[in-house]
Amino acid sequence: MTDRRTVIADAAITTIAREGMRGFTHRAVDRTAGLAEGSTSYYFRTREALMFAALARLAELDTIDIGDVTELGGTVGQDALVSLLTSVMWAWLTDGRERTLARYELTLESTRRPAVRARLRSHGVAFRVAAEQTITAAGATEPKRRARALVSYLDGLLLHQLTQVGAGEVDEDELRAACRDLLAMALA
Q: What are the backbone dihedrals phi and psi of residue 76, each rounded to the nearest 5 degrees, phi first?
């Protein structure tokens, strides 16, 4: 059985994705979770605490999606990395689309709320370190700089696909080609 805090954090993510930050209230999260009015505020008194719960849950679910990249072994081949990137990106654009939308909503909110920005940075450290270690194992020079650039490029690709402001929707094969190109740039 999932505990009540997790149910509320999941509902917070869904509410943010569907309603944006303007519609993100304790009552809206109660409705999304199918809970009695006041349940969410019992567990998370402030809107900020509720945002922090959503951020922590996003980080937890993202970690599950990415898996343990150290399982790829000491030397990582480019094909294995392309497969990993494509798989994660495709999941975040399809089944995990709401989570990805919520992540971007919270990212924009962090420009106005330093505490949210600090939490986002804190949760993101593990992912940045994993990207750096992974491309180091794949033979990248200047792994810190290149990992930061790779993550930024992938983020841009995700954002363009979610919002359709780019050249149009890509299918999984085109996404794989884009991941291959971005990884080649990071390893060059």
A: -105, 125
| Residue 67 Ramachandran class (φ > 0 left, ψ -120 to 50 alpha, else beta) | left
Contact 86, 176 (CB under 8 A): yes
CA distances for 108 relative to 22, 36, 87, 112, 154, angstroms: 12, 30, 25, 8, 17
Helix (H) or strand (E) holding 73: none
Contact 17/107 with Cβ under 8 angstroms?
A: no
CA-derived radius of gyration, the chain: 18
pLDDT in tens, 135-170: 888 888 898 899 889 989 999 999 989 888 766 678
Q: Is 76 within 8 Å of 49 (Cβ atoms)?
A: no
Q: State pLDDT tens for residues 79-104.
A: 888 888 899 999 999 999 999 999 99
The domains found in the chain, sorted by start residue, are 4-187 (1.10.357.10)
Cα atoms found within 13 Å of the Cα of residue 164, Cβ hemisphere only: 3
**Distance between CA atoms of residues 162 and 159, nearest Å:** 5
Locus of tokens 């937890």: 60
User: Tokens at residue 181, please?
Assistant: 């190109």
